[in-house]
Amino acid sequence: MSQEPISSEITSDDKLWAMLSYLIPIIAVVVLFMEDKKARPYIKFSAVQSIVATVVLTIISTITLGCGSILFIVMLWWAYQAYQGQDVKIPMISDFIRNQGWA
Predict the structure, then answer these.
(1) What pLDDT, on the 0 to 100 scale, is given for residue 5?
(2) Pairing with 37, which of 14, 16, 77, 85 sits 20 to 30 Å away (CA)?
(3) How many Cβ atoms from other residues are within 10 Å of residue 94's Cβ?
(4) What is the pLDDT of residue 8?
């Protein structure tokens, strides 16, 4: 995981919205409908990554009959990293999102 900020242009507002996207995934969906937030690369990437991660973790939790739900605790760590302005790197998901051009 990279501990360096993505860009020096990240504002405290960007960090807050990115953190909230990881903590409350429905906010990530709302962010993608807000034009001013969607235009900010850090917020948009965090929102899209949060949605994809939530879907993946939900599928894993369902397949493992709920035992995988412990993985949702990692969302707290990702939220903390986002609030620090760090590049949240989720294995396979981050690269998938970038390759698809979603963010």
Answers:
(1) 46
(2) 77
(3) 19
(4) 57
Per-residue pLDDT reduced to its tens digit, 14-71 = 999 999 999 999 999 999 999 999 999 999 999 999 999 999 999 999 999 888 888 8
**CA angle centred on 32, ends 27 and 34, rounded to 5°:** 95
The DSSP letter of residue 7 is -
Angle between helix 25-33 and 41-63 (nearest 10): 140
d(CA 13, CA 28): 14
The runs of H, that is alpha helices, within 6-103 are: 12-23, 25-33, 35-38, 41-63, 74-83, 93-100
Tokens representing residue 89 in the block: 């790197």
7 with 42: CB under 8 angstroms? yes
pTM to 2 decimal places: 0.86
